[in-house]
């Protein structure tokens, strides 16, 4: 999944699973104790974003979606 996120220079400001796990080499530990290096089918992903300057804040709130497996089509020959 590509969020188009612009990441910062430190690990706590990385914007994608690929960056957070260093390309799958360093798994992250989830709240339930399981580890993950990439998203899996069925994962629920929530993104929240905003920017602010001079007491003005613009954002898109919370955007949540569930990752589904790819659709397999059979094309007639």
Q: What coarse outline follows from CA principal-axis ratios?
A: extended
Tally of individual helices = 1
Structural class: mainly beta
- Helix percent reads under 10%
Query: Describe the biggest sheet?
Result: 2 strands, antiparallel
Strand order of the largest sheet: 1-2
Mean pLDDT: 84
Find the count of extended strands (DSSP E, 2+ residues): 4
The domain tally reads 1
Poorly predicted regions are: none
**Proportion in β-strands:** 25-35%
Task: Provide the succession of SSEs.
Answer: HEEEE
Q: What is the rounded Rg?
A: 16 Å
Span from first to last CA? 31 Å
Task: Name the descriptors.
77 residues; single chain; two-stranded antiparallel ribbon; mainly beta; 4 strands; two-stranded antiparallel sheet
Structural features, described:
The chain has 77 residues and is mainly β. It contains one helix and four strands. It has one helix at 17-20, and strands spanning 28-29, 35-36, 44-53, 56-66. The two termini are 31 Å apart. The mean pLDDT is 84.
Quick structural summary:
The chain has one helix at residues 17-20, and strands spanning 28-29, 35-36, 44-53, 56-66. With 77 residues, it is mostly beta strands. It has one domain.
What topology does this entry show?
Layout: H1 17-20, E1 28-29, E2 35-36, E3 44-53, E4 56-66
Antiparallel strand pairs: 1-2, 3-4
């Amino acid at each position: 999944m590509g969020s188009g996120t612009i990441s910062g220079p430190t690990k706590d400001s990385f914007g994608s699973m690929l960056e957070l796990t260093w390309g799958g080499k360093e798994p992250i530990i989830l709240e339930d104790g399981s580890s993950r290096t990439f998203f899996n089918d069925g994962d629920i992903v929530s993104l929240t974003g905003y920017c602010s300057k001079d007491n003005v804040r613009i954002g898109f709130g919370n955007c949540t979606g569930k990752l589904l497996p790819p659709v397999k089509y059979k094309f007639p020959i």
